[in-house]
Protein: glucan endo-1,3-beta-D-glucosidase
Amino acid sequence: MDFLSAISNKSFMVVTYLILGIFISCSHTITGAGAIGVCNGGIADNLPNEQEVVDLYTSNGIGKMRIYDPNQATLQALRGTNIELILGVPNGDLQSVATASAANDWVQKNVVAFSPDVRFRYIAVGNEVKPTDAAAQFVLPAMMNIYNALVSAKLDGQMKVSTSVDTTLLGNSYPPSAGSFSASASSYITPIINFLASTGAPLLANIYTYFAYISDPKTIDPSYALFTAQGTVVQDGALGYQNLFDATLDAFYSAVEAAEGANVEIVVSESGWPSAGETAATVDNASTYYKNLVDHVNKGTPKRPGKPIETYLFAMFDENQKGPAETERHFGLFSPNKQPKYKISFS
Structure:
């Protein structure tokens, strides 16, 4: 059973890259390291201002941030902080940026204007675009154009261009070694993976064991989703899996390898657990998930043991205008008043 089943001509520089071949108080403290970042969403009307948000990252030792659009005040606040950034190109901008001149303008306004004072790590061109979405046809051209614009600005060596996907692109995820993209997704994602392989960029993947669990609670034990299983739950040849996060990530790796992306790394661009809104969405479960995830990322997965997993927790704040599910409003590590919901140390 698949645990996640519920869940023209280009410019010279494009040819060039192909030629190159390439706070509710808790009793425990969550500790993390350089592999961990936090997503900074903004779908709310009660959040601190951008400078306060960046200051909160700094005061908590959070060294990586993901934002979903080029918010100018956030970019300004990030100057000189040394916080590494995933900067998003919103889905609504993909059609425009699929035009080379618009992509160049976008890069000039949102990247060149802030470099090197802001440490851009990745440009995420689209978030969770599905193969059937109208925007899907624009993702790869937009990625290519953003890349070309960075090359022109001599910034391509400082950051990578990618896109963020979710688990619905997987047609099979069980066992992890049999992970593959669905037939409907393959024609969409395979050219993207080829681009990533050619430019040395990772694939960004949003992984939520919470959604997998609530979609099939009779099959998936909560301990497997929360990193609390005491022994191997899934035996996949010589590899044993004690948690669903590893199993999902390794299924992604298998799928990417099958799509001729054996050297493409995967960055977990979102992962989290809500603290309210559903039976399984509790403060205790969310605290357990975040604690165990932060403790786990430096260990790697069974398929890639000892290799730290760059992971971005979702999200910095509860966002009161998200939806439609109530749980969408309760993924924050902090309340809008900047009080922590959990005690977390990133140092």
Summary: Residues 1-32 have pLDDT under 50 and may be disordered. The chain has eleven helices and 14 strands. The two ends are 40 Å apart (CA to CA).
